[in-house]
Request: fold
Amino acid sequence: MATGPEAPRVNGDREVDSDHSIERLGKRLTLIGSVIAILVGLNTVVTGWVARAEAREESFREALEREEAFWRDRYSEFVGLFGEGVTLDQRRARLFVLEGLAARPAAHFREFTSWTGDNVGKAQAADRIRDLRVRLIEALSSEALAGREVAQTRQVRNFEETLASANQETASGGASPNDAAVTAATPSPERIVFTTQVLSAGKPQGWDFDVFWCANPNPAVAAENYREGLHIATFLASLDKIPSGQGSDERGRVRLASLPQSRQGGTYPRTGNGL
Reply:
C-alpha cells in the first residue's frame, strides 16, 4: 500500500512535541522568574532589616552620649559650686536645682534592644548611667557636702523612691527596678551611704526585705545606726531560705535604706537611734 499519507502525521507529531516543549520552557521560565522574584524580595527584606538595625544602633549611641553628657554636666556643676566666688546663697539655690535634676530617671535603653544586637552592652551602659545618677544623689544626700536642707530633702526623696519601688514589686508580683538604688556587693561599715543599697537580688518570687536605719543629726549616732542596719541586712542577704511556719521560703531581694528624720515616728521608730 502507498505510504504517502503518513508524512503529515509525522509532521503533526513534531508540531505536538514542539508545543509541549514550548509549554515546558514557559513553565521553567515562570519558575525561574518566581525564584528570582523571591530572591529579590528576600534581598530587599534583609537590606531593610540591616538598615533598620544600623539606624537603631546609631540612635542608641546618640542616646547614650546625651545621657552621659547630662550626668557629667551635673557633676561639673556640683563641683563648681565649691569653687571661689560662689556665695553660700548661690550654692544653696543651685544645690536645690541639682537635687531636682537628679530626680530625672536614669535611661534604661530597653527600646534599643533586639534579638541580634549587643543587648549585654546596652544593659552595661544602662548600669553605668544609673551609677552616675546614684553617685550624684549620694553627694546631694550628704549634709557635709550639700548642707542640711538639701540633704534632708534628697533623703526624703530617696525614701519615697524606695517605698514606691517596693509597692510596684508588690503590685506586679516581681522585681521592680529602683533608679535610686545601687548594687553593693561589699558595702563598707566605715562610710555612711544614704542611697538605697541592694545587697542581694535573691529569688524573684521570694520574700523581699527592706532594712531602714534611722538618720540622725548626730554623726556618731547616724554612723552607729547605719552599721547596725548594715549588719542585719548583710545577715539576711546571707540566707538562701527564710524560716516560716511551713518550713522555709525562698529569700528575695535585700535592701538597706535610710529613714529620714522627717519620716521617723508613727509606725517607724521615734527616737532617731533605731531600725
Summary: The two ends are 125 Å apart (CA to CA).
